[in-house]
Every structure is written in structure tokens, then in C-alpha cells.
Design goal:
The protein is α/β, with parallel strands linked by helices. 24% of the residues lie in helices and 25% in strands. The protein is built from 5 helices and 11 strands.
Length: 229
């Protein structure tokens, strides 16, 4: 089977696309960086929306990016079961686009956080399939609006459907129930605030994110095999 092609959408203010592209290549994929006005995603096997500050985050984080031309095309892929991953700002964009429930708000203490943080794997998903429930990881975070919030009904559904993918072991930002990452009910769309691409190889001093990214590439391959030719 040929290599999987991963689209990496770039919005004005995105700044992590090179890190994500390197990680995709490192784990056997083909990285295709696309500007946010692209509407043709033919031949794309998966999508990773990287971190940054889409459109400067001048309204709500991700609120303007949600209306970019590429987003309906990404949503169509998600409806086919194609794996979609949003990292940090990408997670915020997926929530604004209603591809994931809930929202991200300003960190408790109103401070930007840039540090390594502990995570615990809660459930299997396109980024945790290689990891057992309860596995502890150390992954960098880099955000001002990473405090996950949702109403009680949404939270109850997340718990009932096992959609909480990752929790912080020492909640750094005030997120409800220490939530660091979630998935949709179909389990092909995932968002998380930590940056696994920044902990993907030993040369970076931390490779705890490697199995998360390998899991995503596994999900992409499985999706390709399941979709009609």
C-alpha cells in the first residue's frame, strides 16, 4: 500500500505546521501543507490541524478559522470516517466548528502556560490505540485558552460514551474533570491541547508523543482500507 497523505491546514497565525509535517514524515506519512482557502481534499487520507493562533484569536479562539473554506471539506472527510486530529489551536477550531463538543476558555489564573505536563490515557482513540488505559505520559503544553469546558449534559454524554481520551494528572489550566483531550462519538475526530509532535523523538529530549502519532497513522491506514476505492 502506498503512503498515507495527511493534510495540514494552515490559517493566518498557524505556527506549528512544520513540526506536525516533520512528525508525519517521521512516522511514514506524506505531509501536505494546505492554505485555509483550499476546498479540494481529494486524495487526503487524514487531517491534522496544528497549533498556533488562527486569525490572531481576535474574536474567540478558532471562531474565525471555523468559517475558512477548508473546514467544510474537512467535515465531509470526517463524515466518511477519515481520522481528523486537532492539536491545541486545532482542538479549539474543531470545537468552534462543532465537530467536537464543548469549548476552550482562558486558563485559570489568566496566564499563558508553556511547560511539560503529565497525562493519563483514559480511552482508546486514533491517538491512543497503541497505549493502554492508565498509561502515563509527559507531553508539552503551550496555550492561554486551554481550559476545556462544557455544560452538564455534554459532560454526561462524554462520560457515558467514553469520549474522554486524555486527562491531566495535575490539572494546569482548570479544565473540567482535568480533560486534556476528547473524541467525537464516532471516534474518528480527536482534539487535545498538549503537543505530541513536540515530544516525538529522543533528539527532542522526550519521545512520549511518538506512540500517539503512530496510533494516528495506524488509524489513517485502517480508514483507507475500510473506505471504498
Amino acid at each position: 500500500m502506498s503512503q498515507s497523505t495527511i493534510a495540514i491546514p494552515v490559517f493566518p497565525g498557524t505556527n506549528c505546521e512544520a513540526d506536525v509535517a516533520h512528525a508525519v514524515t517521521l512516522f511514514g506519512g506524506i505531509a501536505k501543507v494546505l492554505y485555509h482557502d483550499e476546498t479540494n481534499l481529494e486524495g487526503i487520507d487524514g487531517v491534522i490541524i496544528p497549533g498556533g493562533f488562527a486569525h490572531g484569536d481576535y474574536l474567540r479562539t478558532g471562531a474565525i478559522a471555523r468559517f475558512s473554506p477548508i473546514m467544510p471539506a474537512i467535515e465531509k472527510l470526517s463524515q466518511k470516517g477519515v481520522p481528523i486530529l486537532g492539536v491545541c489551536n486545532g482542538f479549539q477550531i474543531l470545537c468552534e466548528a462543532k465537530m467536537l463538543p464543548g469549548a476552550l476558555q482562558k486558563n485559570v489564573g489568566m496566564k499563558f502556560i508553556c511547560q511539560e505536563t503529565g497525562l493519563e490515557v483514559v480511552s482508546s482513540s486514533p491517538i491512543t490505540s497503541r497505549l493502554s488505559q492508565g498509561t502515563r505520559l509527559t507531553i508539552p503544553i503551550n496555550h492561554f485558552e486551554g481550559n476545556y469546558t462544557c455544560d452538564d449534559s455534554t459532560y454526561e454524554n462524554l462520560v457515558k460514551n467514553n469520549q474522554i481520551v486524555l486527562r491531566y494528572t495535575d490539572n494546569p489550566n482548570g479544565s473540567r474533570d482535568s480533560i486534556a483531550g476528547i473524541c467525537n462519538e464516532r471516534r474518528n475526530v480527536v482534539g487535545l491541547m498538549p503537543h505530541p509532535e513536540r515530544a516525538s523523538e529522543e533528539i527532542l529530549g522526550n519521545s512520549d508523543g511518538a506512540e500517539m502519532l503512530r496510533s494516528f497513522m495506524d488509524a489513517v491506514v485502517s480508514s483507507r482500507m475500510a473506505l471504498p476505492a
